[in-house]
Design goal:
The chain is built from no helices and eight strands. By secondary structure, it is mostly beta strands.
């Protein structure tokens, strides 16, 4: 099932005591590039990061797989479409862990 806006916590996600986080800017977002800053636990390696953006209706409106080496912290998403105003969920999946953030589109 698609993620729900009601279940997203504002802080970093944790898994087995390892802290990792994702932040997005600009947020609120209007158009152009969306920057995602990924902070991985020390020693964590993720070769691929899957990015999905869900509408509030649970429909995937953007998805991409991004190659990410050990030094990868900042991911630039070139969004080539216009989203309707409202709330969206951005889900980053690394090594079977999902990190979810709310995104507001103006």
């Amino acid at each position: 099932p698609p993620p729900s806006l009601a279940n997203v916590q504002p802080g970093p996600s944790t898994d087995a005591g390892l802290t990792e986080s994702v932040s997005l800017y600009p947020n609120p977002y209007k158009e152009g590039k969306l920057t995602m800053v990924v902070v991985k636990p020390r020693g964590e390696q993720a070769n691929m990061v899957k990015i999905e953006i869900y509408s509030s209706a649970g429909i995937i409106v953007f998805n991409d797989m991004i190659h990410c080496d050990d030094s990868c912290e900042t991911i630039q998403l070139d969004i080539d479409k216009t989203f309707a105003s409202g709330y969206y969920l951005v889900v980053a999946t690394m090594n079977r862990r999902k990190l979810t953030r709310k995104l507001f589109v103006q």
